[in-house]
Amino acid sequence: MPRPLTPQTIELVKQSVPALAVHGAEITKRMYAKLFEDDHIKSLFNHANQGEGGSQVHALAAAILGYARNIDNLSVLAPVVERIAHKHIGYHILPEHYPFVARALLAAISDVLGEAATPQLLEAWGEAYWFLADILTEREQELRQAIENKSGGWTGWRKFVISDKVPESDVVTSFVLRPADGGRVLRHRPGQYLTFRLVLDGHEVKRNYSISCGPNDEYYRISVKREEDGQGGSRYLHDDAEIGTILEVTPPAGDFFLPDEPSRPVVLLSGGVGFTPMLSMLEAIGSDYPELEAHFVHGALNSSTHAMDRHVRSIASAHGRVSVTTFYSAPSVSDAVGLSHDQDGYITVDWLSQKTSLQTSEFYLCGPKPFLRSLVSGLTRAGVPSDRIHYEFFGPADELIAA
Questions:
Q1: Domains with residue ranges and CATH for the chain
Q2: What is the pLDDT of residues 70-116, one digit of tens each?
Q3: Is 140 a catalytic residue?
Q4: Which one of 91, 98, 328, 391 is the catalytic residue?
């Protein structure tokens, strides 16, 4: 563990909370602008997350504010630290990258706060930054060593070849990826994701895609929705990547996964393409946990966007203790309850309370922000303990992190 923070540093950082609450987003926006002046550092980031109304800026501002508020009780931030460490594994962030962030952050604080950014305050924030950086680098080193010590493990970027490409719906296509070196793959934990390094229009970009198959030693599968208004990653995979295309990938990462020995009934809740980590969990349940009670509950627009339903139901039927329910929020004229899907409308906590056990189940959720915002808060209000509500999200979920 790094050396403890001095009382003076803790006091100065806590005194900066009101200023961070007002100017946090402006500070992080300025920080990113300074970071991205360096093309080497700029290439480390997923710039799709810099959009969405500046969601990454607000997510980082919320995280910094949370750090300042809890700097004398950092155990509160342990889940956020774990999630950041996994993200850094995915993006191959190394210890030598941390000084760039330190310089950009302190310069941004100085620029935005002006005279209020006294030398003492900047020194305190420098100490606070490196204290957290040391915690992160230690955890990242532990994760990397654990990955390297496992069969099929690797660090950094490894080449994979697309061995199969399967359309699953009008908008979703699956890609089966096998190591170009012919070796084994690291058995991922069901729910984790892969990070890809792509070159689009001459620019290097990073993208995360959840693994949609159960753990095995031979391949990964991702199932990707084509996003017309995205920044090109999904369009490249759908339109340009073919069988035989080589992709660069870091090891499976993420702190959202099914435990090794699930002891409670499991409810897998997904919206849209959020079904992908849930399908990985479902395949693991189907092969490894014959006695586990599980519910696979999915919300889609209609049958044109609904992917892999037959596969899901075949797993459930073979297992015998898995139920499947699908909701269509905008059924097409050819869709009908009992044929194409099970329920019209949206998944609700009221429905879940009738069909599942809120008192005894573990809930896993993945989907768009409105989906998560509604169900995470709804399950909490219904009395489900927070440690039994697990969720994955697409990009920065600043509101959820702040909460």
A1: 7-148 (1.10.490.10), 158-249 (2.40.30.10), 266-402 (3.40.50.80)
A2: 999 888 888 888 989 999 999 999 999 999 999 999 999 999 999 99
A3: yes
A4: 98
